[in-house]
Amino acid sequence: KDGNISFEFNMPEALTKGKFLGMAHGIKTEWGSISNSIVTEQGLMLTSNMPRFMRQGDKIVVTAKIDNVSQKEIDGFVKIKIQNSENDQEVTEQFVAINSKQKLSLLPKSSKVYSFELKVPNINYPILYTITAESSQFSDGEEGIIPILSKQVYVKESIPLWISDIGTKEF
Is the separation of the CB atoms in 43 and 133 below 8 Å? Predict the structure, then answer.
């Protein structure tokens, strides 16, 4: 009626950039349009770099990049938690010898990479990992499942068998 409109919508929590386009028209063929960009972000954002799978006996360093996109300095903790995905029993101590929880300190508009050294025990179940970054103002985290493969390598050999004429052949 007065040319004003308001609306609400939900955006994902992750860093997302979208473009908003709007168009309106009236009875007497008058029209108008608007175009704007929308960016959603959290004050603290965690991006982990986890493998797709691990093998029994592997020694691996996993990393998590923490971004402080706020205007304030952030202090807190980064921690990794590992569970048996079949029964939710925590097994972090079996994987991480030291530093499953590290101190977090970031200046405004900066980022830092935190690393955790893992040693995969001889288990045969997938693990559920959770990496979280927490401060008094913000928190973020990632969770996922990683299969643990056997350290035994099964070798299969295949050879082509050409049968072109009548007779007996031995391979």
Answer: no
Q: How far apart are CA 170 and CA 164, in angstroms?
A: 14
**Beta partners for residue 128, in sequence order:** 83, 145
- With a CB cutoff of 8 Å and minimum separation 6, the contacts of 57 are 119, 120, 122, 151
Distance CA 117, CA 113 (A): 13
Structure tokens at 116: 């955790």
Q: How do residues 109-143 score in pLDDT, each as one tens digit?
A: 999 999 999 999 999 999 999 999 999 988 999 99
The strand pair at 127-135 and 74-84 is best described as antiparallel
For residue 58, the 8-state DSSP code is: -
What is the pTM assigned to this prediction? Answer: 0.71
Q: Taking a C-beta distance cutoff of 8 angstroms, is the pair 104, 75 a contact?
A: yes
